[in-house]
Amino acid sequence: MAECIFCQIAKKEMPASIVYEDEQCLVFMDIFPIKEGHTLVIPKTHGAFLHELDDALREHLFKVANAVLLAQRTAGITLDGANLLVNDGKAANQHVPHVHIHVLPREHGDIAKVAWTFLTRMLNFFGKDKKRAKLDQLARNISQHLPEKL
Ligand code: AMP
Ligand code: ZN
């Protein structure tokens, strides 16, 4: 079976637009963002479900996710609120079976746009390099508004 893609990203075997990392976690931009600034927080160790992580790690991930949300705000990403979301299991719409917290900026009245992007975001395979450059730029911007150590 092919190795988990988020484990590969954590080991730097696969490219990612990295925002933050420490011994326990890695934060990077979602490659198919539902909204500009859509970020993922993952543990560096593999676990498919939240309950597989120990309490301290789970708490750390949410602490980092909260800091990422504050950084998105101060970095100037347009948001009136956010979804901090874990799809825990395939039945709950989890596509990558490695725990991840979505930090998804939201705006008042964006539901139709979000629903449309959610359905179509993976169809756009064009302009990958341009897309990566933009994600790298967003990652740098959010990163600059995070404390060095969390
Ligand atoms: P979920 O449906 O909750 O499992 O979310 C998985 C998320 O991972 C989706 O939003 C994907 O766009 C995102 N994703 C998949 N592959 C990558 C990747 N190589 N780099 C960054 N994000 C990814
Ligand atoms: Zn994994």
Task: Describe how the helices and strands are arranged.
Layout: H1 5-10, E1 18-21, E2 25-29, E3 39-43, H2 55-74, E4 81-85, E5 101-106, H3 111-120, H4 128-144
Antiparallel strand pairs: 1-2, 2-3, 3-5, 4-5
Helix pairs in contact: 2-4
Adenosine monophosphate (AMP) binds next to loops.
Explain this structure.
A hairpin with a 3-residue loop joins strand 1 and strand 2. The protein has a five-stranded antiparallel sheet with strand order 1-2-3-5-4. Helix content is about 35%, strand content about 15%. By secondary structure, it is of the alpha+beta class. The chain has one domain: HIT-like (HIT family, subunit A, 2-Layer Sandwich), CATH 3.30.428. Helix 2 packs across helix 4. Zinc ion (ZN) binds next to helix 1.
